[in-house]
Design goal:
Structural class of chain A: alpha/beta
Distance between the termini of chain A: 49 Å
CATH topology of the largest domain in chain A: FAD/NAD(P)-binding domain
Helix content of chain A: 25-40%
Oligomer: homodimer
CATH architecture of the largest domain in chain A: 3-Layer(bba) Sandwich
Shape of chain A: globular
Radius of gyration of chain A: 22 Å
Number of domains of chain A: 2
Largest sheet of chain A: 5 strands, parallel
Chain lengths: 431, 431
Amino acid sequence: MEQKKKIVIIGGGFGGIELAKKLKNKNVEIIILDKHNYHTFQPLLYQVATGGLEADSIAFPIRKIFKGQKNLKFRVTEVKKVFPELNKLETTIGNIDYDYLVIATGSTSNYFGQTEISQNAMPMKSIPEALNLRSLILQNLEAAIIAKDPVKESELLNFVVVGGGPTGVETAGAIAELKKHVLKNDYPELDLNKVNIYLIEGSPELLGAMSVQAQQKSKQFLEELGVTVYTEARVQGYDGQTLSLVDGRKIGAATVVWSAGVKGVVLEGLSTEVVVRGNRLKVNEISLIEGYQNIFAIGDVAAMITEETPNGHPGVAPAAIQQGKQLAKNLVNLIENKPTEAFKYFDKGAMATVGRNRAVVDINKIRFQGIFAWFTWMFVHLMTLVGFRNKLVVFVNWVWSYFSYDRGTRLIIRPFKPFKEYKKPHDAEAT
Amino acid sequence: MEQKKKIVIIGGGFGGIELAKKLKNKNVEIIILDKHNYHTFQPLLYQVATGGLEADSIAFPIRKIFKGQKNLKFRVTEVKKVFPELNKLETTIGNIDYDYLVIATGSTSNYFGQTEISQNAMPMKSIPEALNLRSLILQNLEAAIIAKDPVKESELLNFVVVGGGPTGVETAGAIAELKKHVLKNDYPELDLNKVNIYLIEGSPELLGAMSVQAQQKSKQFLEELGVTVYTEARVQGYDGQTLSLVDGRKIGAATVVWSAGVKGVVLEGLSTEVVVRGNRLKVNEISLIEGYQNIFAIGDVAAMITEETPNGHPGVAPAAIQQGKQLAKNLVNLIENKPTEAFKYFDKGAMATVGRNRAVVDINKIRFQGIFAWFTWMFVHLMTLVGFRNKLVVFVNWVWSYFSYDRGTRLIIRPFKPFKEYKKPHDAEAT
């Protein structure tokens, strides 16, 4: 009897999970590797960072996802390097062999080489990073109340979000709602007029990938909530106290959220020639990395460059899920010496929420904004969340927040430090 | 017009919160200080540590508790020292004056001077400590799966709880249920026969403060769940790998939970003469610390020594709440030059849960065990939880767990390290 082929998947995000699930009853051996023991529902990270949801409700233990899947093993580990000529991975728990390797490592914040910004601004791409940001926002409010120097006070009360994509728009909106509904009640000593929220975007419009209606309406919604929106404004630097724009404007701010871009998390050991724009891996129409016979990439880290998609597919959950699904079929085809099928992306549209009753939705030519868009956004996100308990807890939180105008999860879970020590920890994972 | 008296309360636990709430419409100025920005519902910490509840559902932002209370300010700070002769506190955010000071700092784990144990065993008295323990339990399971050395594997799969009070009984029971319902499904590679849970108690009986029926039944319940109970067993040392008992027995274990005792968190600057057994502060029948005119202590840190209570009151939430309530009245009486009233403790009874359908309850002469006790336990804890959202989220989790036999919150939120580096971080707060 022939030995089962061994498929190793690096990453338990949307793409990796979908691929492994679709291989459930196939005659293969699967090993899925992740540095965390949980899958993160990234689209709702901003709600964790702004006190709307508990971290546990948007994360799901990877072992639970694969309960009962007999052809799969899961390991918590960090992959250090791949040796393509040996079909071998070096990891923190030893070497792992593979017949087929799938890189589904996702993306991380892109600071475009600006070290100073990367050391001082807050990323929001993982649960520890979101909890770290939540703690910083709350710590800065506590510090503002006792600040004696008006310049320091102003820095502590200025919140800047850099990047006008969906994450930036949603985060700025959520901080504005925090100001409107929570600070008013819980920080009576604060002068709310001193609390400012800025959203900084380099291009002329917010939500560049969406329709003109969505772009205009999201800006209007943000301004209604009191957010100051700067478009065509490029960030030059941020030293932890002052954010400088290229045009010379300066904003003193102790909290700067960085959502201005992402880059793929590539793996050491691959040819540098396959790394293209955005640090993504160049793959063909069956997700195979150029120049390799058995190494694939899917999701945010993959750039499937075709005539229709000169920059690859958008770095969103549906693209990763669809690529994972298609690759499951193609891996089986390859093993059984059957012809493979080219990936076809089905664009499900895009949406972003700004705040209560305020969201924008594009589904092909159908575009709508406002309260119905907001309910659509909530419904789609609830349905996509992994796990019944998580759906239930998120739903309870949303219903409760809707009626109470409140945010329940406001724990500072890192040590409280006086203002001058406020720096982003170098290893955000440690918090 | 006379100036308002300034009452400073150190600690936002059950006692401090109750005292401040009861002073709501009084003509005083209140400052409440805590090193966290949230109140912790300590009786359910063990469920956070064992993956049953999210941390956010048993914690409540202190600012929200006092929303709308105009005579109160809240500050996140650590108090360093008191200067009784100056009526002044030294804190990390500067000096704070008081007319009346109330010490409600609670208790922390007591290792009875055994440094080695304190460095290697896991405490469970705060949210960061409970999350730290949860992460360690899950990390040790992941490490066990890949362990090659059978001795190491056995250490990783032995879970020891030291101390047979309510916390120890509840924790041992919860780990046993984790084994029974979660490990079976989610860790198919584990040989469950190798997973052992021990509960170690120095005295002849578990739940020393409860009735004989509760003591016997809780032991029986634990044994039904597969917990090995050692009574009259005293711990001599724990080096991080091997737990040694005074009688010579040894247990190799990578996880040791320490719930064998607590001690009061006293404040530097007070006379050492007022510190009695258990590191508690000796107070009179109106909670005034012996030898002082305006410094009080309530809750776990206070020992109100009378003829009826030669060791003070038990360190439980109802005692702290009742002392806080009575002290609110007496502080007003003192300010208005009216006679004070001696504190009278109303014993509400005691209860402990071992697992699904298994709890023990003593209410005066009424004693019952089993499923009805379990529902009583849940009802009482739900009602005592602060905040409607928290009640709702905990209720949803409990109902979901009851029907699914599962635990939903199983995130490792500290960095994953290989076994040899597993040590308790020196500053558990940092995790």
